[in-house]
């Protein structure tokens, strides 16, 4: 059932070209220039008239939500807030019937997310679900939703569900932007053509980085700390990269927006600190270059995720992982793949049980 892979996690990482494709199938109709999503279409007025969208989730799904904020605000120009479900439910938040609440959950059973949704519903908000498990509790309680078609995710560390969530959020942002006039037709057409090719880009990254990452991972088996940095859309991707490493390898890792480094974490940097930095061409590249210079000056070990043909960051980096160039909004999907592989191989080489990490459950049904 692991399809020849040693672990479900590796199988699921490699399934991503297909799971992203399956999530878009029937929804993204490039030739017709249409995104079909019944859940959005049937409630378009609710979305269009929303004062704001509040995204609630936990863990990896919360990271997807942060990227959703960037997507929806950039392309649909609707204000978005992203909250941990556990905080939202207990802090007496302001919710009105003009709010749209989107819950993101792979399992559809996360207790805090479910409770936060119930609260939002009581206050009259329109509640929307992005779940992977069909007919799960969250899918049932929501007014409408869009399933991620990632297929069953068995590994406790979420991988293919995350990239499927990003796919749905991208579709929602583009669809809303198209309908409310914030995303012009030409840009819409070029973005959806690019989105359609993302499964292929992910396939390329898997094959071009898989062996290299196994080699890189060997150098970090005894490391005790990691920093992950990114800016813009790749700041949440850095958080997600760090979460993957801590949950399965038990190495302490922190994700940060790269510019926040100088407000604290830079104090940690010395020759023993590996820093994974996501530095694609599109999206604050020059700023990232100066962050890398600051790390280099303090002798941090730099593992850089860059676009093919990159020079400036690559020249300073100790390890260079190349990903294909995409528009910034798609880069977290493509950049997450090598980070999943890196976490996976470091954990495997440390002898950890990657599919069933200690203390963790696949769905957290108690708060
Ligand atoms: O099923 P959900 O998406 O609601 O789960 C949320 C988190 O528990 C989950 O993403 C957790 O952080 C994963 N172990 C991450 O890999």
Note down, in words, how this protein is organized.
- The chain contains 15 helices and twelve strands.
- It starts with 7 loop residues before the first helix and ends in an 18-residue tail after the last helix.
- The chain is of the alpha/beta class.
- The mean pLDDT is 95.
- The longest helix has 21 residues.
- Helix 5 packs antiparallel against helix 12.
- Strands 4-3-5-6-7 form a five-stranded parallel sheet, sandwiched between helices. Strands 9-8-10-11-12 form a five-stranded parallel sheet, sandwiched between helices.
- Bound molecules: 5-amino-5-deoxy-1-O-phosphono-D-mannitol.
- 5-amino-5-deoxy-1-O-phosphono-D-mannitol binds next to helix 5.
Which molecules are bound in this entry?
5-amino-5-deoxy-1-O-phosphono-D-mannitol
Distance between the termini: 31 Å
In terms of DSSP E residues, the strand content is: 15-25%
Fraction in helix: 40-55%
Essential attributes:
single chain; 367 residues; alpha/beta; 5-stranded parallel β-sheet; 15 helices; 16% strand; globular; binds 5-amino-5-deoxy-1-O-phosphono-D-mannitol
Can you lay out the helices and strands and say which pair or pack?
Elements: H1 8-14, H2 16-24, E1 28-29, E2 34-35, H3 38-41, H4 44-48, E3 52-57, H5 59-76, E4 80-84, H6 85-90, E5 99-105, H7 111-122, E6 126-131, H8 137-141, E7 144-145, H9 160-179, H10 185-196, H11 198-218, E8 225-230, H12 234-249, E9 252-257, E10 274-279, H13 285-297, E11 301-307, H14 312-316, E12 319-323, H15 331-349
Parallel strand pairs: 3-4, 3-5, 5-6, 6-7, 8-9, 8-10, 10-11, 11-12
Antiparallel strand pairs: 1-2
Helix pairs in contact: 2-9, 2-11, 5-9, 5-12, 11-15, 12-15
The structure holds 5-amino-5-deoxy-1-O-phosphono-D-mannitol.
């Amino acid at each position: 059932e692991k399809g020849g892979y040693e672990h479900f996690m590796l199988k699921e990482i490699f399934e991503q070209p297909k799971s992203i494709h399956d999530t878009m199938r029937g929804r993204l109709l490039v030739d017709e220039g249409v995104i079909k999503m019944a859940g959005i279409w049937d409630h378009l007025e609710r979305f269009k008239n929303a004062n704001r969208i509040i995204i609630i989730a936990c863990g990896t799904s919360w990271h997807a939500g942060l990227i959703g904020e960037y997507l929806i605000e950039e392309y649909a120009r609707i204000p978005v807030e992203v909250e941990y479900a556990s905080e939202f439910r207990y802090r007496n938040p302001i919710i009105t019937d003009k709010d749209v609440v989107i819950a993101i959950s792979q399992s559809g059973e996360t207790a805090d997310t479910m409770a936060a949704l119930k609260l939002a519903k009581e206050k009259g908000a329109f509640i929307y679900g992005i779940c992977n498990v069909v007919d799960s509790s969250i899918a049932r309680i929501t007014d409408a939703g869009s399933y991620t078609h990632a297929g069953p995710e068995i590994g406790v560390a979420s991988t293919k569900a995350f990239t499927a969530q990003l796919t749905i959020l991208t579709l929602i942002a583009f669809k809303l932007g198209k309908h409310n006039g914030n995303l012009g037709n030409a840009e819409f057409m070029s973005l959806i053509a690019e989105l359609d090719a993302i499964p292929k880009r992910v396939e390329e990254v898997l094959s071009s980085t898989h062996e290299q990452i196994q080699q890189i991972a060997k150098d970090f088996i005894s490391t005790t700390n990691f920093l992950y940095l990114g800016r813009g859309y790749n700041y949440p991707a850095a958080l997600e990269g760090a979460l993957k490493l801590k949950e399965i390898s038990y190495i302490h890792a922190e994700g940060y927006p790269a510019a926040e480094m100088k407000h604290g974490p830079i104090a940690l940097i010395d020759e023993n600190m590996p820093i994974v930095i996501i530095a694609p061409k599109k999206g604050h590249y020059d700023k990232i270059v100066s962050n890398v210079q600051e790390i280099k000056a303090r002798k941090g070990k730099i593992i850089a995720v860059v676009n093919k043909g990159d020079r400036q960051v690559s020249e300073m980096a100790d390890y260079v992982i190349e990903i294909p160039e995409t528009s910034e909004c798609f880069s977290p999907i493509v950049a997450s793949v090598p980070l999943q592989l890196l976490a996976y191989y470091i954990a495997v080489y440390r002898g950890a049980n990657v599919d069933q990490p200690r203390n963790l459950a696949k769905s957290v049904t108690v708060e």
